[in-house]
Amino acid sequence: MHRPSHPYTVRPATSADAEAARQVMLDTFYRDFGYGYVPAWHRDVIDIESTYVDDPRHVLMVALHNGEVVATTGIRSVGPSHPPHPRWLAERYPSGTTAQLVRVYVRPDHRRHGLARTLVDRACAFAADTPGYDCVYLHTNVNVKGAEAFWRSMAKEVFDARTTGEHGPGVGTVHFEIPLL
Length: 181
Known about the structure:
A hairpin with a 2-residue loop joins strand 2 and strand 3. The protein has helices at 18-33, 43-46, 48-53, 87-92, 115-129, 147-154, and strands at residues 9-12, 59-65, 68-76, 98-106, 135-141, 156-160, 173-178. It contains six helices and seven strands; from the N terminus they run E-H-H-H-E-E-H-E-H-E-H-E-E.
């Protein structure tokens, strides 16, 4: 398992972490993605406690530095939805047996310290230890600097939506799978 290179604490989020984790996520939507909060895509961000803390099949991992939440990664038992994703992809990764990796976000000042990799490793370990999951699935916006290279180093590509234009012009969505250990 990868360990971050600076003094960070990585653990499952508690109710006390919800507001700070939400802020990391919202800042990422506005700063890195450039489109802000979208209710249809980001419901879990508003209700972190019932989505991640209260559901035993879900987890939100957080990284803390000097007591401040600086990074997040989640697992939810939902597959990709159709639409906007292709029907065959939604069928391949059904809700309930798919552990979808979500919200892999690190504040800019804390990047390049191994936090994302550590959080993903811990989230995948959670999925492997949770009965009923067949695989870990994720999709990413490869227009975000470093995202594509990062995921190609950790996961296997399943579908590159850029080749079909299914998500519309300018949307660089690539879907990946990480095998359960």
